[in-house]
Amino acid sequence: MASSIPLDTLKASLVHPPKVTSVKALVESTDFSSLIPSFYTFTHNLHDEPISDDPDDSIPIIDISLLVSSTPEEQSQVIHQLTKACSDWGCFMVINHGVSESLTKAMIASFQEFFDLPEEEKKEYQGNHVMDPIRCGTGFNPSINKANLWRDFLKCVTHPEFHSPNKPAGFSEIALEFSKRNQEVVTVLLKAISKSLGLEESYIDKAANFELGLQLLAANYYPACPEPEKAIGIPSHYDHGLLTILVNNGVSGLQVKHKEKWFNVNIHPNALFVQVADHLEILSNGKYKSIAHRALVNNKATRMSIALAHGPSLDTVIRPAPELADNESHPLMYVEMTYREFLELQQTGKLRSKFRLNSEQCKAF
C-alpha cells in the first residue's frame, strides 16, 4: 500500500528509521511504507553468488534410530554416513529422532506468542552481553555490522541452568521439554561422531565436559520484507559450539555453502537440520569443518527458525584430539582456549570471516 505521508518525511524515515525496538514493530507501524529504511540495506549483492540447482547433490539424511536400535552392521553404516556428512557437507538432516512433531509445533507457537507480546513487555528481556542468560533484541552488534538485520530474536541459556521468560503462559514448560529432547539427540550424535573420527565413543563428551555444556535456545523472527533483495536476515556466518539443531515454521530461507555454491535448505517435515559448528572442527583438528550459512528474507510470509546450539562447558579448554594431530601429516591447527574466551573474542569482531584460530593467524590477536 502506498504511503500518504509527505515526501520529505518519507525520505527522512528511510535514512533514520523510526524509534522502534524490533523489525516486527517497524513493519506494523502506521507510517511504514513499501520501502525499507536505508539502515536495513545490506550492501553485499547476494545475487552475484552462485546458487546450486544440482538435484544429485543433496544434503545427507541420517536415520538416528539405527544408532541405538539396530545391528552392529547397520550402526557401522550410519557412522560411515556421518563421516561423509560431516567432512563433505558440514551438515545433515536427522530423521526418526524421537522429538515429537507436536512438541516442535508447540515450541514454534510459543515463540510466536512471545514475539506478539507488546514491545514494552519484551523490553524486560533485553540484554547486551553474550553471556546474559536471556536476551531479546533485533540485529547484531552494531560495531560489527554496518546494516541492521531484518530479524528479531530471543535467546535463552537452557543448560546447564535453565533460563526462560515467564511469558507467555506455558513458554517455560515447553522450552524445557523441547531443550531436553534435543539434548538427547545431540548426545547420541556426539557418541557416533566420536566413533566416526576413530576415537572412543565418549571422547567428545569428556573432552567438552558436555554434561555441563552450554545449550542455547534461540528463535529468529523474520517478518515479510517489502524489498527482500535489499535486506538480509543473517549474513554468512559460522556457529560456535559443537552442533546446532535447526527447525522452522515451514517457510524457507536458510542457505548453506557447499563446494563454493549456496544451497537452499528445505527441511523435511519433522526432520531436524544439524550443522557442524566451530568447536567440533577444533576437536577434529579440521577434519570436520563448520559450515557457512545465512538466512534470506522474502516478501510473502513471516519466517521463524528455532536453533539449539550445543557447546562445551564454558570453562573447558577446547583443543584438537591428540590422536588427530601430529607433527607430520596432520599438524596441530588450532590454539587452545576456553569456550568462554572464544565467545568473548567472537563478540569483539576479531574472529572476522571465520573463527581463525590456527597458530599463525592468532599471532595478530
Automatic annotation (TrEMBL):
Gene3D superfamilies per UniProt:
B-lactam Antibiotic, Isopenicillin N Synthase, Chain
Q: Name one GO molecular function term.
A: metal ion binding
Q: Which UniProt keywords apply?
A: Iron, Metal-binding, Oxidoreductase, Vitamin C
InterPro entries (UniProt xref): DIOX_N, IPNS-like_FE2OG_OXY, IPNS-like_sf, Oxoglu/Fe-dep_dioxygenase_dom, Plant_2OG-oxidoreductases
Checking Pfam families in the record gives: 2OG-FeII_Oxy (PF03171), DIOX_N (PF14226)
Residue limits of the Fe2OG dioxygenase domain? Answer: 212-312
Q: Matching SUPFAM superfamilies, A to Z? A: Clavaminate synthase-like (SSF51197)
The family note in this entry says: Belongs to the iron/ascorbate-dependent oxidoreductase family.
Give the PANTHER family listed for this entry.
OXOGLUTARATE/IRON-DEPENDENT DIOXYGENASE
* Protein name, per record: Fe2OG dioxygenase domain-containing protein
**Gene encoding this chain?**
LOC115966253
